Amino acid sequence: MRNRKPLMAANWKMNLSLDEARDLLNGIKSATIDFNRVDVLVAPPFTTLRLAHELLAGTGILIAGQNMHWESGGAFTGEISPLMLKEAGCGHVILGHSERRTLFFETSETVNQKVDAAIEAGLIPIVCIGETLKQREDKKTFDIIKTQLDESLETSCKNGNLPQSVIIAYEPVWAIGTGKTATPEMAQEVHRFIRRWLIENFGPNTGETIRILYGGSVKPDNIKELISQPDIDGALIGGASLKTDSFVSIIRFYDS
Ligand code: 13P
């Protein structure tokens, strides 16, 4: 029996005005959530972090940045530092999202630097990996996942040490925002592969403790099946996290 508490994490991406964000946060706040059964996290845009921090104070709902620079400060126009995220109320940070990798040319090498900086600053990284449709069709999924893990967590692998609080998110690129979800079995196959990789590199305690989230067209009607897989420990949700009803019913997967 798995003893990892499921985590439902909302990645708002570049969406919602302050007023819309306030409505959504108040909606989530007023929902009845059994925090013994699920952890909840929201990752709003930077300019909404402070509002989220104020509105969610005392609720137990976690807050994440969507990206971060690895340096602590300096001449890096447009970037944000680990400490700035912490000051804005974040305990977590999403790193290496496929949109960062494809649209903004982030590499696993820079993701590794960011992971190190996050851990150093006391932020919990949510490290995203996933294959494209072409890579899946070419039967390269496991090679790609292994390479992304090896490179994005290179320093931790060298040290043989990864904090057990670190979170991995498997997001097949072809399933993001497309309405195409990986079947629960397809997702589980990759999650099991990631679990084995974690155990090989960091030992069974860490490997069995780290949560692996699934992301890509997660909705109220597919969350139950996904979360029933032994190595799927929650979800990273885009579109369906922008509406109170759909996000709350994903959070309350245990109801149905
Ligand atoms: P969608 O849920 O909109 O497919 O987005 C998934 C995602 O990229 C979460 O990080």
Secondary-structure map with pairings?
Blueprint: E1 7-11, H1 18-30, E2 39-43, H2 49-56, E3 62-65, H3 82-87, E4 92-95, H4 98-103, H5 108-121, E5 124-129, H6 133-137, H7 141-152, H8 154-159, E6 167-170, H9 184-209, E7 211-215, H10 223-227, E8 234-237, H11 244-251
Parallel strand pairs: 1-2, 1-8, 2-3, 3-4, 4-5, 5-6, 6-7, 7-8
Bound molecules: 1,3-dihydroxyacetonephosphate.
1,3-dihydroxyacetonephosphate binds next to strand 8.
Radius of gyration: 17 Å
| Count of DSSP-assigned helices | 11
- Small-molecule binders: 1,3-dihydroxyacetonephosphate
Sequence of secondary-structure elements = EHEHEHEHHEHHHEHEHEH
Top-tier CATH class: Alpha Beta
Proportion of beta-strand residues = 5-15%
Fraction of helical residues:
40-55%
- Biggest sheet descriptor: 8 strands, parallel, barrel
